[in-house]
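Weekly structure sync - notes
Attendees: PM, LS, DV (DV joined late)
Agenda: review two folding runs queued last week.

Item 1: First target. Sequence and structure tokens pasted below for the record.
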Amino acid sequence: MKSTSSGFFACCLALAVALMMVGCQATKTSPPPAVVSVSLNQSSVSMAVGTTKQFTATVQNTTNTAVTWSVDSTAGGNPSVGTISGSGLYTSPSQPGTHTVTATSVADTTKNANATVNVSSISVSPASAIVSPGATQQFSASIQGSSNTSVTWSVDQVMGGNSSVGTINITGLYTAPSQTGTHTITAASAADSTLTASASISVATISLSPAAVTVTSSASQQFTATVQGASNAAITWSVDNIAGGNAAVGTISATGIYTAPSQLGSHTVAAACTANTSISASAGVSVFLFTLSYPSSAIAPSASEQFTATIQGLTNTAVAWSVDGIAGGNSTTGTITPNGLYTAPFALGAHIITATSLGSPSSSVSGALTIDNYSPGGVLTYHNDDSRDGAFLEETQLTPSNVNSTQFGKLFSYAVDGQVYAQPLYLQQINVAGTLQDVVFVVTQNNSVYAFDATGKQTTPFWQINLGPSVTKNDYSGVSPVVGILSTPVIDATTNTMYLVAETAGTSTPFWLHALDVTTGAEKFGGPVAVTGAVPGTGLDSSGGNITLETDCYQRMGLALNPVTNAVYIPFGSCNHGWVLAYDKTTLKQTAIFNDTPDGGGGGLWASGGAPAIDDATGDLYLMSGADAGDQNFSQLLYNDSFLRLDPANLSALDFFTPDDNYTLAQNDADLGSGSNILLPGSSSYPHETLGGGKDGNVFVVNRDSMGSFNSSANNVIQSVHTGVKQYNNIFSTPVYWNGFVYYHPNADVLHAFSWSNGLLSQQPVSSGTIVYQMHGATASLSANNTSNGIIWDIDNSNYNGTGTGSGPCVLHAYDATNVATELYDSSQAGSRDTAGEALKFTVPTITGGRVYVPTANELDVYGLLGH
């Protein structure tokens, strides 16, 4: 049995093998397909933020070798993980981190390959620094995104640096070389030398020029800081270790301009690199006191004035003197002695007197001095002087004790051919026909000019001329029937020239500027010249974009002669605009022109005959305008009813003040400019001031250096005081100032005296007269012997009938200036003995040499001590 079973098994096995061989021979099958594979050229990379790395994908076992790229499973990546292009260019993100770049087969999207990307950043702190030669600076490197934070250091690509560029140790401590310059500090990752960061290091020094200086108090000195080894290094300035300094030690600007304090002392100016204040340089400053003193800023021609230079804080106190930059001066500028005694030339003008320290030649002090228009005993201009204060302070004969109807009265009179609106002018001891004479000058509405013997010894004029037929006008109340010479002329005492404007009929233009020789009446400097002009403007009577001086204007305000510019100023009003024209006093050529309402209307300049006030130190003009047409558009620089300050050279408006009720004034014909202003004496305890008032009776005290402009809700002035008894038509006059008093005589009112102290007026009069003047009140004049024997003189024109002829007499009044309630004299007290000529309006008396000259409608009356 056992054998049978074994055989059977063997047979079966053989049969099976045979069948298998038969089957294999009968059926052939294909091998299975190859598996797609993807591989990358690198599986792990390190790179810096913001850099690129090229990946390459290899696809096998398929004819389609295209792949798609992703970063952190985001197709194409994004800015936060990095982006990868279709060609495998990977751009790392801006932040460190670890990301996976994947390439996926397009043929079999289940097949891909990955690469790990470690994105790292490195930074060096500080990014820039400034050190001095040989100094040290610690740098530190920070690596993010890598576990290996070790770095290597180099200077200008030299590992560890060297003595020329500076050295840096393994901890980042840099030691600067001995030479200035700029170098680059580089930190490189020890794990990846391509991962680097750099910082700039400047090895710098500072030098300061000048290294030492001596300056006078409050003077300025330019310091210059020069930095070597660093470009555009910011500088911090200090004085005595105080940033920018202060008033006690002096101040220094960001550009190195040092302004010394007002006190003696020694100080240190320092300049330091803002980035490293240990890099610095300093300079010594010695401050000494250097002052210049002199009695007055204006003196008479040929007069002398002592200048005194005082130096404290220097051993050498000697100075050198110059005038207008000329050592010792000369005959044109005036001369100055080594002791500082200045002698003026016999010519008007402004000059600069300078004292230069011999101990510190860069230091000097200067003072401005104007040669004023003055002649002893003379009255050369409206209201006596350029400040228009109306005070004649050289009167030694007339006193409150002898001005009375017993001792004082009418001495004589001179008949004239027309109304005398202008104030009489006076020159003492001028050469007329070979003889020294005291001369009073009178001009009339018939264009006549008279030179009379001021003493009355010669009853006929020294000379008389007529400048042509007057213009007939009946449209201006009271100025009729003709208008000729309406304003007060001005005399230049240094050239014996009288300047006046005559309105002449039958000529191409009615207004003519004449320059007359006061000794003969002859025309000078090629005169007369026509007074005309135009300015750009779109206002009333504009044509072609210009405004032309109207022929229907009135030249009512007095002329002014500026001793600083040597120009004659001519104002106009009572027409569509206010005008001022300037003419050179020698060539008679027009030098400037001003229109106060070029794009509107109004602003007339008439001021009841007043004249522009002039600051003889600066030459600036001050005057007040009216409101003829009422245009209120201040945005177009229209100066109706305004105080104005004009540049003497070009007549541009430097400043202005306009009352807050300007519109109301214009609507009610309540001109501010019906009166005129004066300049008040200066002081260190209050601002420079000008004072004036108009028809509404408000007197304004205005800061000349900051006039206040216009504010519809407030008047930005120092003070306002009301005077006058009427709502409108109060002030038609120029006030008088003397010895702490301001005097006004309003319309239909009495004379008032206000006190003026510390730059302020009393709110109420300190004394008042008792006699009411009806016709516009009066513009008074004052005589005094400096600060004593003050007498206020004015003219009552209440008898003026407004027709131009046939008025009753005017009345001359004299009041005690210390108490105007005390009337000393009036010309009606002695019966007919002292009766004056016919009343006019706006007339102003002139007082000099013991006599009072009263202009009237038909004669010049002269009053004085009887028997003299």
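Item 2: Second target, run right after the first with the same settings.
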Amino acid sequence: MAVGRRSWSTSGLTSDFADHAARLHDVTAGLAAAATTSEIADVVITQGIPALSARTGVLGVLEEQDELRFLRSVGYGDVFPERLSLDEPWPITAAVRTRTMVELRDVVERRAEYAVPERVWKASGQGTLVAVPLLIGNRPVGALGFTREESRPLSADERGLVETLANQAALALERAVLFEADHRAREQAEGLQRVASAVARAATMGDVATAVASEALAVLNASGVTVVLARASDPSVGDVLASRGLAAEHARSEPTVNLAGNTITAQSVRLAEPVYAESEQELESGSPESARVADSFGVRGIASLPLVVGDRRGAFSVLLSESRRFYPEERRFLELLARSCEQGLLRASLFEAEQAARTRADILGALAATLSGAVAVSEVGSAFLDNALRLLTASSGALLLLDEEQDTLNAVSVGGASPSRDLWLPSIPVDESYVTGAAFHQATSVAASTREELEANFPGTASGFGGSARSAYAGALKLGDTTIGAFGLVFEDERDVSVEDQRLLETMADLCAQAIGRARSYEMEHQIAHRLQQAMLPPGVIRHPGVEVAASYHAGTEAMEVGGDWYDTFSLPDGRIGLVVGDVVGQGIEAAATMGRLRSALAAYALYETSPAELMARLNHFGQGVGRVDFATACFAVLDPESGALTYTSAGHPPPLLVAADGTSRWLTDGSTEPLYGSETFDPVQATAHLQPGDLLLLYSDGLVERRGEHIETGLARLGEAARSLHNQPVHEICATLAADLRPAVEHADDIVILVVRRKWAARAVFQRVFPARPEELRLMRLELRAWLDDQELSRSDREAVVLAVGEACANAVEHAYVEAQAGDVSVELSMLDDSLVVAVRDFGSWRAVPHDDPDRGRGYEIMRALSERVDIESGPDGTIVTMYLPHGVDRS
């Protein structure tokens, strides 16, 4: 809840306002502690019903199928549905469709406007109904609804409470959905990795099927899994290769499946596509035969995915004991699992059937083992090419993937030791004149066994390689029914590729495609984790005319970009600013969740309590309750930009570093106390310091100074020396340089947070101007600037240098900042110090890259550099700031 820049006293509030504020405070605290969508629903409904004197309450989350899935319904018994399509004529779906609040006076008005089943109206209150969408911006993420017995319109306070509940619930749901999606993505990616590893080790088809069934059972929390494969001698009969959970007992009594029947499994095999029956109704309508069997051992949903293993067909089926929809990522996980199962079964069948082909089996096994550990697409491509080149002793090869936007095939890996390796193009059109383009276009393997065939059928390849290629072979990379790329091999001699080698290459290509799918799944997980981390960190640092502030976060590992280190900066009601850096023990989602709760709690407490010691005591108390903090450290400081007064306390955190303008430094250790872990004896202390103009304050997390096997004093000394050497640099450069120079060069380093604050020098005079980013505005800006400079008693040469430098910076912003968007504003601010002018030119757009062949490229920047002692450029999502430091009183003749 935002407040104005003034102090609040609860003694002056009315009882209604105090109750309203207290309830919103409870909601904020509850939502800060809630980690799942269900917990969020509990908090909102539990607080909303008594606040509105409501009889019922519901909260639903919007899913990709345009359905509301209700996380909590209170007061309806079992008559309220678990899901509702947005097409249903209900008030709560209308609120989502229209993105507006729906308020109905009584049950008579409800019946007149909406076709809701009467049993639902009977269970609800007879009076007012309110339904409100949960929005992020203008994007709906769910809906909230209440009914009550009395029929009266919502008061202004009640309406405000409902809207605030909806706003907070929407933000919390967005966070929780990211948490849950990340958790599912991580479990699925890890499951796929385990399957890949197990399949690579499996020697028999039964081992492969068992590994896949076990992972599907665990990751999807399923009730049963079966893997069925048709007999080579009779395709209508399927053997159960593996069964887990509820399916195991059924498989023992019926070890075969009739694939000519009309079961869900048989339909999937026959149609060669996934079949989902996600409720009892869908089971009954889709396959009465499956419904009867499923009912006999408590199954309420089935998903069956087809398997193709050589010439044999089969199915991979997952059984659920409850009716529910599979999330899109779960369906993708099942697809990838089925494909892994296919490739594993195919490898096992080849191994079993072709014992004599030891070399081929060794290559296939080696590739599978390598791919099982590959987490990047380039790693997958290199592993595939190394084995393909070794199998066929080709001179060189490349693996290419489709760029759908450009309609090109782009090389992700090139291999081989001959000169022809350098002749592979980084990108080719999807054109059949190239051997790889033809393989992709036809979704199959193609070959030219002679130079004549190569020139006749694939002139693009023949021309590109010249005499380095006498023959060529290429194959498609397919993920399910989708062709995602192709690989190509060229030979210095003319040759045919044997049928056995072709089959093995196809299998290797399938393994490669599945590994690429897994690698992309990992990339998606990293993107989710990155978005989550960015969502949990503040969008930026506070901007205040009296200080310069910069902060940065650096993840500790590449595998997961979410950690427990955090920072925040904010304005306080009395005009001072709050600065905090914290560290929750551990890494990953759990640490990030705790971090998010602590950060939210501290930001809320700071609005009412600016004493660092008192605030830290409140935060420790929070750790005893819903915060569930096992162990955390934090350093909180309050700075008055006007006077330079600093008050701080450090709960188990490394001490702040104060670097004076003259380069001397000292550690602020007087405010140190024990860490935050909910101790009832926690008794924080606070201390004071003073920042003179030009002084630098550095807050950081322990990852910046700690090294395994090294005393902490060594790390602190290293940081102190680095900070002193950088103290005159711009604050954002100090952040970047410290992170780059002091971050440990080890694989599993800790997260790092750095927060740098410099108190600015007081200006004798200030010039400020904001103008539209149009060329014709530049002349007026220069005229006003000249008039201001005339009053500053500068020499003529100094005045002209300032006007020229500022004009170049403004012209650059006008020309480049708003090319891709509607023109915005340019802000100019000059601060006159005793011996220099500090100029800040800011835009709020996104710069267009300047072409390399532009003869004027960089001219404006060169002019600014020539006229200034230093030029700093800081770009971000909110625009670009160019800061120049221009001396005055210097002879420029």
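Discussion on item 2: Residues 156-201 form the longest helix (46 residues).
Action: LS to circulate a short write-up before next sync.
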